[in-house]
């Protein structure tokens, strides 16, 4: 099995170029908000980007990308930590997880529900990024209302179709 190559000192600049090229394709649409880039690495040596996207069920979907040693780690919060109906919610999420491709559901920081993916750095092209972003928006819009209705039932009311 061949391992993903290690990133080099120019990897962050190349990934930033890929993100900018992807954004240029969506420039005329209101689908993509803004991209922020953390220019300096964090204490683990990871570089980070934040992409704000427009969703249907959730107004703003924030996708975080982190350039790691061999991969780009992607994550977005689907919902905060559930407070109610844990068993039913986790059954729903595990069933959804089985159907999903590329992205997977996980319990993340502060017990929130996240969509995550790890993509070998060299494979993150403009086309692959477009697939990742599209899948992220699709899955958040699909999962968010049901998950919120189950896990935060006393706080969440689904909005009516626009």
What does this entry look like structurally?
The chain has helices spanning 11-25, 86-99, 126-151, and strands at residues 32-38, 47-54, 60-67, 71-79, 104-107, 113-120. With 162 residues, the chain is an alpha+beta fold. It has one domain: Yope Regulator, Chain: A. Strands 1-2-3-4-6-5 form a six-stranded antiparallel β-sheet. A hairpin with a 5-residue loop joins strand 5 (104-107) and strand 6 (113-120). Helix 2 (86-99) packs antiparallel against helix 3 (126-151). The longest helix has 26 residues, at 126-151. The mean pLDDT is 90.
The radius of gyration is 17 Å
Number of helices: 3
How many domains, as an integer?
Answer: 1
Low-confidence stretches: none
Mean pLDDT: 90
Proportion of residues in extended strands = 25-35%
Q: Give the tally of β-strands.
A: 6
- CATH arch. level architecture: 2-Layer Sandwich
Largest sheet: 6 strands, antiparallel
Q: In what order do the strands lie side by side in the largest sheet?
A: 1-2-3-4-6-5
- Judged by helices, strands and strand pairing, the structural class is alpha+beta
CATH topology: Yope Regulator, Chain: A
**Series of secondary-structure elements, N-terminal to C-terminal:** HEEEEHEEH
């Amino acid at each position: 099995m061949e391992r993903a190559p290690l990133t080099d000192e120019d990897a962050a600049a190349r990934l930033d170029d890929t993100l900018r090229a992807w954004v240029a394709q969506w420039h005329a649409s209101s689908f993509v908000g803004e991209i922020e880039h953390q220019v300096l690495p964090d204490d683990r040596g990871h570089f980070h980007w934040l992409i704000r996207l427009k969703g249907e069920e959730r107004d703003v979907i924030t996708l975080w990308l982190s350039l790691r040693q061999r991969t780009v780690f992607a994550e977005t919060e689907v919902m905060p930590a559930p407070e109610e109906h844990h068993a039913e919610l986790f059954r729903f999420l595990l069933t959804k997880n089985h159907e999903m491709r590329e992205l997977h559901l996980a319990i993340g920081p502060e017990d929130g529900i996240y969509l995550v993916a790890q993509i070998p750095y060299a494979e993150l092209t403009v086309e692959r990024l477009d697939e990742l972003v599209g899948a992220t928006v699709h899955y958040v819009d699909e999962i968010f209302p049901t998950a919120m209705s189950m896990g935060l039932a006393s706080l969440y009311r689904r909005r009516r179709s626009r």
